[in-house]
Design goal:
The chain is α/β, with parallel strands linked by helices. The chain has twelve helices and 15 strands.
C-alpha cells in the first residue's frame, strides 16, 4: 500500500507524494502536511456498478429515510482493520467504525476465519434445538459480567435488546413507568422511541406511553458543571470551587432527578435506563457519582436499573470492560449490541435469574437471536479483544487522543469541549466558549468534509449535530491518532482562515 498521505489510485502505477496530500479531481482542494500511516493491505479491484448507477439505484430503490453522509456520499468497497477503501481505491482512516459497531477491526482475520468455518457447518436452527455455540457463547459472555448478571437472551439489534429490557422491567416489577435522560438514544422501534429523547428521531405518531425523561446531567452544556466533574483525562473549561470529594453540580442534578421522581411518575416505577456515556448525543459524560445515587433512588421506588452498553461495552472505555463499571454500579439489566458482533447483526440482554424468569411465564420467541453463526462470531470477537489487548489499547490510545485533542481545544475558540473515556470521544463545536452556542451547521459541515477529503472519517452527533463523534475500531494506533489529529488541526485552521477572509 502507498506510504504517502494520498490513497492509492488503481491504474496510476506510482505513489502519491508523501509531502502533501492532493486529490485534484475534487473541486474542494485541501492540502495538508499530515502523513497517512502505511498499510500493507492491498484491496481487491472494484468490479460492481459505476458510481452514478449506484446513486440512481439508491435514489429509486432504497428508503429515503436511510440518509447518507457527505455532499458526495462515499461508495465503500472493502475494509481492513481500521482502514476503509472506496471504489476507486482511496484509503480512509475510519474513526466512526460503522457507528461504533466495528469493535476489533474491519474483517478481523480471527473473526472472519471463525465465521467461514461455521458457514460451512450450520447456519440456523432456531432456539427449539440445542447447538453447541449458544451454550459456549453464553458461558463466555456471562463470565465477563458480575454476579448476579448471569442469564442472557440473544437478539439481533440494540433497539430490539432495549425493547426487550423495557418489557422485562415492566413484567418483573408489575409497574409501567420508565425514566430516561434527555438526549438519550435507546433505539428507533415504536417501543424504544419513548426512551429516545432526540428530536430528529421523533415521528409524528403516538409513542412513549409510560416513558418520562429527566434532565441530562451534562457538565459542559447543562446549567451546572465544573473542572473536576467527570471521569475523563480531559475536563471542561468551566471552573468550579468544589473541594476534593465534593461535586456541587452532581448535587444539583440529583435534585432534578428527585424532582422528576416526585412530579412525573407514580410512587412505584418499572425502571430507569441510561448509557454510561451518551453515544448519539456526542459522548456526554455525567458527574462521577450521579448514576450511583440515581440507581439507589430508582430502587427505592421499586424500579430496576438498566445499563445500555450498546456503544460503551466490550472494553471501549479502556479502564473497564463495561461502561457501568466506571460508575461503580451493578445494574439489574444490561443491553449489548454493535461491538458485540464487530458488524454482524447480533445483540443481547443480560440480567438476573429472577428477572429472566418473569419472561418465562408465557411464550416469548426470537427466530434469529442466538443462531449458531451469531454465537460463533460473538465468541471470536471476545477472543480477539483479549488476544489483541484491545481494552488496554483503548485506554492507552484513547487517552493519547483525548490529550492531543485538548490541545486543539485550547488553541481554537470554536472547539468548545473535548470529552470521553478510552475510544469513546466527543468534540463539541461552538461559536465561542463563553456562550457555548452550537457552531452553525454549514461551518461544521465544511470541517467535516475537509477531514474526509484528507482521508479521515468522523461521525456526527448531538442535539444540533454540533459534536464530532470519534469511536474508531479499537485496533487503532497512536500513529493513526497523530495523523487524524493533524488532519483535524488542518481542517480547523482552514476554517479559521476562511472566516477571517470574510
Amino acid at each position: 500500500m502507498a506510504r504517502g498521505v494520498g490513497p492509492l489510485l488503481w491504474g496510476r502505477g506510482r505513489r502519491l507524494g508523501s509531502v502533501a496530500f492532493r486529490q485534484q479531481k475534487w473541486k474542494n482542494f485541501v492540502s495538508t502536511q499530515a502523513k497517512m500511516p502505511p498499510c500493507d493491505f492491498v484491496p481487491e479491484k472494484y468490479k460492481s456498478y459505476p458510481y452514478e448507477r449506484m446513486q440512481k439505484i439508491r435514489e429509486q430503490n432504497i428508503s429515503p429515510s436511510l440518509r447518507m453522509y457527505y455532499k458526495k456520499p462515499l461508495l465503500l468497497h472493502q475494509g481492513h482493520m481500521q482502514w476503509l477503501f472506496d471504489y476507486e481505491g482511496r484509503r480512509y482512516l475510519d474513526l466512526f467504525a460503522g457507528i461504533v459497531t466495528v469493535s476489533v477491526g474491519h474483517c478481523h482475520p480471527k473473526v472472519t476465519m471463525a465465521t467461514q468455518k461455521q458457514l460451512a457447518r450450520l447456519w440456523h436452527t432456531t432456539n427449539i434445538y440445542m447447538h453447541p455455540s449458544i451454550q459456549e457463547y453464553a458461558e463466555k459472555l456471562t463470565c465477563l459480567l458480575p454476579d448476579p448478571l448471569k442469564v442472557v437472551y440473544l437478539t439481533n439489534s440494540g433497539s430490539e435488546a432495549n425493547d426487550l429490557a423495557m418489557f422485562m422491567a415492566r413484567l418483573y416489577t408489575r409497574n409501567f413507568d420508565i425514566i430516561s435522560f434527555r438526549g438519550a438514544y435507546h433505539g428507533g422501534s415504536p417501543y424504544t422511541l419513548g426512551l429516545t429523547s432526540i428530536g430528529l428521531y421523533k415521528h409524528g405518531v403516538a409513542n412513549g406511553f409510560g416513558c418520562s425523561t429527566t434532565m441530562l446531567p451534562d457538565v459542559f452544556r447543562g446549567p451546572w458543571g465544573g473542572s473536576h466533574c467527570r471521569d475523563s483525562p480531559v475536563q471542561t473549561v468551566r471552573k468550579c470551587s468544589c473541594s476534593e470529594g465534593v461535586c456541587h453540580a452532581n448535587d444539583q442534578y440529583i435534585e432534578q432527578f428527585k424532582d422528576t421522581l416526585n412530579t412525573s411518575v407514580p410512587k412505584t416505577i418499572a425502571g430507569f435506563i441510561a448509557e454510561p456515556i451518551q453515544g448519539v448525543n456526542g459522548a456526554v459524560q455525567y458527574p462521577r457519582s450521579f448514576l450511583k445515587e440515581a440507581y439507589q433512588l430508582v430502587r427505592e421506588r421499586g424500579g430496576i436499573c438498566i445499563s445500555d452498553e450498546v456503544q460503551t461495552g466490550f472494553g471501549r472505555t479502556g479502564s473497564h470492560f463495561w461502561g457501568f463499571q466506571t460508575h461503580d454500579v451493578v445494574p439489574d439489566i444490561v443491553t449489548l449490541a454493535k461491538g458485540i458482533g464487530n458488524g454482524f447483526p447480533m445483540a443481547a440482554v443480560v440480567t438476573t435469574k429472577e428477572i429472566a424468569s418473569s419472561l418465562a411465564q408465557n411464550l416469548h420467541f426470537n427466530t434469529f437471536g442466538g443462531s449458531p453463526l451469531a454465537c460463533v462470531v460473538g465468541a471470536a470477537v471476545l477472543d480477539a479483544i483479549e488476544e489483541d489487548g484491545l481494552q488496554k489499547n483503548s485506554e492507552d490510545v484513547g487517552t493519547h487522543m483525548l490529550l492531543e485533542l485538548a490541545k486543539l481545544r485550547d488553541k481554537f475558540e470554536i472547539v468548545g469541549d473535548v470529552r470521553g473515556k478510552g475510544l469513546m470521544i466527543g468534540v463539541e463545536m461552538v461559536t465561542d466558549k463563553d456562550s457555548r452556542h452550537p457552531l452553525p451547521a454549514e461551518e461544521i459541515n465544511q470541517i467535516w468534509e475537509d477531514c474526509k477529503d484528507m482521508g479521515v472519517l468522523i461521525g456526527r452527533g448531538g442535539l444540533y449535530s454540533q459534536t464530532f463523534r470519534i469511536k474508531p475500531p479499537m485496533c487503532i494506533t497512536k500513529k493513526d491518532v497523530d495523523f487524524a489529529v493533524e488532519v483535524f488541526h488542518t481542517a480547523l485552521q482552514r476554517h479559521m482562515e476562511k472566516a477571517a477572509a470574510k
